[in-house]
Amino acid sequence: MLRRKVSEKLIEWKESKNNKCLVVQGARQVGKTFSIREFARSNYKNVLEINFKESPSAMEIFKGDIDIKSLIMAIRFRYPQIDLIPKESVIFLDEIQECPEAITSLKFWSEDGNYDVVVSGSLLGIDYNRPSSYPVGYVEYIRMYGLDFEEFLWANNISDDMIGSIRECYENKNVVPEAIHNRMMELFRVYSSLGGMPEVVDSFISHMDFVEVDRIQRQILQGYQYDIAHYADSVEKIKAEKCFMSLARQLLDKENHKFQYKEVEHGGRAQKYYSSIEWLLRADIIRLCRVVTDVSYDLGDYARDDFFRAYTSELSLLVAMKDYGIKQHIVENTLTGNTKGGLFESVMADILIKKDYDLYYYKNDTTKKEIDFLIQKDEMIIPIEVKSSNSKATSLNKLLDEKKDIKEAYKFIDGNIGCANSVYTMPLYMAMFL
After folding, report:
1. Using CA atoms, how far apart are residues 140 and 138, in angstroms rounded to an integer?
2. Which of 81, 92, 105 is nearest to 39 (CA)?
3. What is the pLDDT of residues 402-412, one digit of tens each?
């Protein structure tokens, strides 16, 4: 069984005693249902699980009065085998986006406080045909992603002690012993070819078969395309799928990774496609990295909505958009040119997204200055460049000379640790410690 960080967050919520319902948000196939189910079974005497996609007739429970007394009566009538004991039971409502009335009921479960309620579902950010009110103030949120690189290391039996030793090298800026570094880079390349979808990682760990991995990745990608066709309205569905499926070209085939509508279709323009980008963003299918006009706090104040890079919400999806052969090139470290640079940048975006950072970048065509990523932590800006080789970090050095309030910057490479002029050179895998 894959070890997931979300398990600790679920236990923290249970122990908080704040009576709020828990909403686990996340894209399709990232492991929400499995993780919640295991948490429920391990921490409660009684578990009621309702999946509104598998059992659409269960929506009838919420069609009448949704005060807690009426809901419990309806639940006991439908599920007589489950004894819902106050303070000892959890109710898990999966694919809750299918039942707007169940979403409205979360307010009353929270006010009652006798039953823990966890809900999950994809596309929770889309208010399609939803007449019900959202229970603001009565829910707590956890955002879940596919496996991050550290979770991938756990799956490959890399111990916490070993990860801790590598973290010490990161914190103390010490060179990683060569044998350990080579093994970490090998695992990083495998992760780059797989992404973090639990089914993909579990299959690889069990069988070490890239052909089977590729089949699963493409199956999941098709599932995302189905979701677009199913949930997007008739005006958006074709446009949204075109935007989504253009991301491999946008990120891996071009030198400039800014999202360009002409890559969606010949002569494509923002006026036609921007609403589709917004739909994909709300659906947890893509993430945006927006350009800023100035590298100053708060970056959001300087961000432009019309210039951005778009990444898949999970790396597995991006790799599945390319031919099977890309996996061999990634693992054997034979990628070249724009594809190599674009892949490393996309993996870095994946790592930062899974650490819940908002992503920004800076580009000034006049000064020829470009910073791949900018993130904020504790009101400080951290500039990041990703290099396919250990070339000079010219833009980072210029930025540090101009912005004295920025104390450090990072250059992540396919190499070991170094430092020059407050620019720390780090192996790509160390981004997991940011």
Report:
1. 7
2. 92
3. 998 998 899 99
Dig out the tokens for 8 from the structure: 């600790």
Contact in structure between 152 and 201 (CB atoms under 8 Å): yes
Alpha helices in 283-324 (DSSP H): 315-320
Distance separating alpha carbons of residues 34 and 154, to the nearest angstrom:
18
**In which residue are the tokens 């996340």 written?**
26
Question: Could you tell me which of 389, 254, 241, 354 has the C-alpha nearest to residue 309?
Answer: 254
Looking at the predicted structure, is the pLDDT value of residue 304 above 80?
yes
Q: pTM of the predicted model, to two decimals?
A: 0.94
CA distance 29 to 312: 14
Q: Is the pLDDT of residue 127 over 60?
A: no
Is the peptide bond prior to 298 cis by the omega test (within 30 degrees of 0)? yes
Asked if the model's pLDDT at residue 128 lies above 70, the reply is no
Q: How far apart are CA 226 and CA 219, in angstroms?
A: 10
**CA nearest neighbour of 310 among 254, 271, 267, 238:** 254
Phi, psi of 238 (to 5 degrees): -70, -40
What is the domain partition of the chain in residue ranges? 6-144, 149-433
Which residue type, as a one-letter code, is found at position 201?
V
Residues contacting 359, CB < 8 A, separation 6+: 287, 288, 289, 290, 349, 352, 353, 373, 374, 375
CATH architecture for the domain at 6-144: 3-Layer(aba) Sandwich (3.40)
Residue 354 structure tokens: 């899974």
Range 31-42 average pLDDT:
97
- Cα 247 to Cα 20: distance, rounded to the nearest angstrom: 38
Type of residue at 92: F
Q: Are 51 and 94 in contact (CB under 8 A)?
A: yes
pLDDT tens-digit readout, 336-352: 889 999 999 999 999 99
**Coil, strand, or helix at residue 22?**
strand
| Residues whose CB is less than 8 angstroms from the CB of residue 89 and which lie 6 or more positions away in sequence, other chains included | 44, 45, 46, 47, 48, 83, 115, 116
